[in-house]
What does this fold into?
Amino acid sequence: MGILDQLKQEAAAKQQENQIQVDTQKLCGQRYGDIILPALQKTFHFMRELAEYLNFLEHEVIIGNYSDTYPQLGRLIQKDYKVYTDDHGGFSDFNRLKQVNMRFYCRGDGAFSYTLEGKSRIEREISFLASCKLPFDWQMIGRQMGMQTASFSVTRKIPVRFKFEVDYDQSKIRLLIQNHENFIKYNKLFNLEDVDGELLDQVARYMLRKDDDFYRLEISNDHREAIRQLAEHAKREKSVLLADGDQGNGRQALEKPSLVAHIKKLVGKN
It folds into this structure.
């Protein structure tokens, strides 16, 4: 085969590959407009109204024990709901939604302080607090028995986010939940046809801490065992800290009239 013929074959193969990519993009674009976008728009409308009524009703969701590993958090109140559709707290084009976020805070009064010893333990603590986006300060306060010692001050303000986003590879909606309980990150894929009023109601009930069926039923046995092991590890580390005399505890989820009634029922007392 001559050079020219070889180049012609390579060009034909590349043109075919490019056409396949164009056709795939067209199909993805059509699927997005016909199925994915309506699911996200439905989610946006539901979450926006949910936030509006929760903020208007000023109902206090009380959290008695957010995390066993940080008992100093004490009593927290869940409030200040906000919906946005980009990664910066703003709004993108409603006809080009890629994500829907519900953000709120679990707040308490003031801050709590503790000390930690050991360079690696201090570094892990800083990394953990930063990854959870907790407001905190820390400083080195010297050495005790040859070990570095740091003082931490953590503000009782935990940011919580429920994020619905498009998973283009699987043509599904992914739900990410951060910090709703015990600083756990939750990740779940849903088929587009499953993103309906019933699912959104389940998410809302879990969000308002009315029940945990939504989370408990979806968590895998492996994930549950991993969480159990992490909790056991945290308890052992806390025991070591206490035994060493450490003063800190260490590091230780429609129609408007009918929707109003539904929100009142959701946030009402059990």
